[in-house]
Amino acid sequence: MKHSPRLWTVLGCSLLVASLGAGATACGSGDRNPLSARPYDAGDQLAFNKAAGSRPVDPGRPLEVTAKSVDARITDVSVVDSHGRLLAGELTAKGDRWHSTVPMAAGVRYTVTVSTEDKRGAPGQRTMTFDTTPSKQVLKVEFGPDAGKYGVGQPLTADLNEPVKDKAARKLVERGLVVETPDRVEGAWHWVDDKRLHFRPKEYWPANSTVSVRSNLEGVRIDNDLYGAVSKPLELEIGDRVEVVTDASSHYLTFKRNGEVVNTIPVTTGKPGFSTRNGVKVVLGKQYFVQMRGDSVGIGGSEYYNLPVYYATRVTWSGEYVHAAPWSVGSQGYENVSHGCTGMSTGNAAWFYENITEGDIIQVINSIGDDMDPFGNGFGDWNVDWPDWREGSALLKGTQEGRSPIDTARLRPQV
Q: Has 27 been annotated as catalytic?
């Protein structure tokens, strides 16, 4: 078999080193191994379809690098944008052409490093930079809730300024929304609609941890002429694991912190016709004083009310609270007489108010009322079974439950 000159050069030097032993010179300066040489400037041997230093170019056109000379071949191409993201591409078997295989990002600077070799195997290299034009149509992502401290039930939200309907585009969006947790928590994004996503773990967040989310979509082509815009990252501090269970049939509320029962409180919930919703609810906020009027939630006639309410903890946007109800103390622990809220004495409500946090879990059981809506009236996310939640993810839909490479890629432990 006839060996190439390059192979013989390498073998000749290797055998000579082995025979002379340590410290011997393998090849003289007149027969230097070309692989040991510093890369020469390969600029004259390459052609780029993007001109360095020119005006910004259209990111929709693929990048191409071609070997102009038959005396050189391309061995490697590395293309990195100003955010450190690699541009995927494909090199021909002959090494005469490389082209990008995915769309370039808009409004970024690319650095292209091309490695070559000549007929003797001597390495060459060329580096060039160019900019891409910003996109006129951008996809903005606003993460929620506001930065701060929350309970273990708080979902993350991502609101988009433009609808995303295409399945492939939705997958791309999900890959670009990176959630970081201190532990390897299994979780998933769920598309609520074309412009809104929620993220929650399979179980509640680990107590006393930190959760953050950021977008890697800046400049990335989402769909047609729509490109990702810069987004502000978000970090949440997760507090103790607080779980409240309100039993509408026994008329008692049980307050647990980190698995330990710390208080039981007599309550009254919604009476027939106004029964409190069953299910898991996430605390939306707290108000020391609220003027509650029946007509604000469509209640009038003989059932109309207009009451000053203190120590109000909100759990739905439609007006369900846990609050002080001194007018019903005689019924608390015995019967349900409210219009859907959970009422307790002023003293108990003050204690509850001081010990509950936005994002904590409040679950109502054994009510004759409807079930809590998953979306649209607060955070009912935890009422969706985990398999069904995964089906709302563009990446996980139709996949088997369990940690997948996609989960691992998007959920990154903090160090």
A: no
